[in-house]
Amino acid sequence: MPSLLIKELPADVHAWLKKEAQANRRSMPRQASVILKERMHGFRPVHFGTPLKTRVPITRAFMDEAKNDGRP
Question: With a threshold of 0.70, does the pTM exceed it?
């Protein structure tokens, strides 16, 4: 079976792959292979519809207020 060496993998990608491999009880190379194979056979681009218009602009302040609404 052919092999692949990935150099200069970003630390956050490495940490994510390690976590995924542990969660699926696989080695990191096996998990990477499974992910690549799944993407090869099942990749479908995501198409988002037209954004909804709201009466109030959704800002960070609005979201913080909504999250904290009703909290002491």
Answer: no
